[in-house]
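User: Fold this; tokens only.

Assistant: Input:
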Amino acid sequence: MAKKTIQDVDVKGKKVLMRVDFNVPLDDAQNVTDDRRIRMALPSINSVLQRGGSLILMSHLGRPKDAPDPKYSMKPAADKLAELMGKEVLFATDVVGDDARQKAAGLGPGEVLVLENLRFHPGEKKGDATFAKTLADMADVYCNDAFGTCHRADASMVAVPKAMGSKPKVVGFLVAKEIQYLSDVITSPERPFVAILGGAKVSDKIPVIKNLLGICDKVLIGGAMAYTFSLAQGGKVGDSLVEKDKVELAKELLAAGGSKLAMPVDTHCADAFKADANKQVVETGKVPDGWQGLDIGPKTAKQFADAVRGAKTVVWNGPMGVFEMPPFDEGTKAVAKAIADSKATSIIGGGDSAAAIQQLGFADKVSHVSTGGGASLSMLEGEKFEAVEILDDK
């Protein structure tokens, strides 16, 4: 890890401004329904508090329109953090207003303050330098522990560390771990290196497929995007989800990938998008009119599982079918189980794949589950993040 981490900084008696990813789901009663992202930040938070520092935590939540909106308040996340830590967590009712500045100024060692939603201020999305300086002036140290937003140029990610000047600017343990897996493992993977890509859209994965074809020994394609490839090969896809405007691009990727790019050999399809529809398994490219492919078939699931079993490094991003609706979760289950059972270094790339691996109970049987869907995709594309590049080197 080339960047300094929060552990490398003496935080005793200092205020640490930490960008966390507390963008957690809330129910209608404003209760946090999944606290995983808050729990993932605890090692960095505890490191500061145990060494005599104080913490100002900042995050966004949801997509408010650059103005306060009670349904996107950070207060429920602050309350959940207090519950998880078993200690008081202060809350500022604004981001850079009087309440935030006064509470930040009065923080003592071991105390924690959560600022209101960054996106309640128009300066966050605009990357505004004045807004960033007000935040930077609250603290002695900046720490980025929000991997899920590392691919963004929001003020809290880029302008704030720039505004810190010569003050320490470091990564938290979560970001350090994400970079170690997603960057280091992909730069020098143990081989064979297998990538499994699924999900709905080819367009979301084009740069990833292109980048991984240059690195991997095998790239396995599943999910709805496989039907766009099937169409590109002259197959029949019935009513399956396809991106007709991406068929030419799919042809190019097939030509470039050659034998490295593996497509499904069979498809589990239905005559309606529901669990109790009529179902049948057909060869890929032979989906009847009025039917739609909703999962990879059993032969494909076995082939993909065999490829995983022979791998030393596995990256998985995107489900193989409609994993929320049995029996069209079978392909995703088969791949997840093969990854969990394998001895390979395994990286699950956020989003739906992370949800699936959690849901199936395999999260503790893989090497790393990424906390950032978009950010992990950007890293798999080989992108560099300014939000990380500008932090202090070791």
